[in-house]
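Quick one:
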Amino acid sequence: MFNRLEAIVFFVADIHAAANWYAQLLATEVQYENPQYAFIQRGSISIGFHPADAKCPGGVGGTTAYWKVDDLEQSIKILEKNGAVLYRGPIQTDLGDHAAIMLDPFGCTIGLHQVK
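Output:
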């Protein structure tokens, strides 16, 4: 039924600011499907930005997508330098990996996962 994960969509107050922040962070360009939907491409994943509304208010408490990183502490520092804040962790998982959750400047979570 499921082939592969295709997109992550963040529901935010300002799609342009959020899309530009992620595009700068990931060294890519913002694209627009229409005036209400911006997105960037990162490998085979599309990261989309949709206006938050009553059905999808965005922010903490929803799903957190985790990015595999080579160096958790360095990734945290880079994200903090760009305006994100540490929200949870860092922790060591029961499998010996390391993980943390950051909060981007738009109220969305970013999971970080470093395999041991």
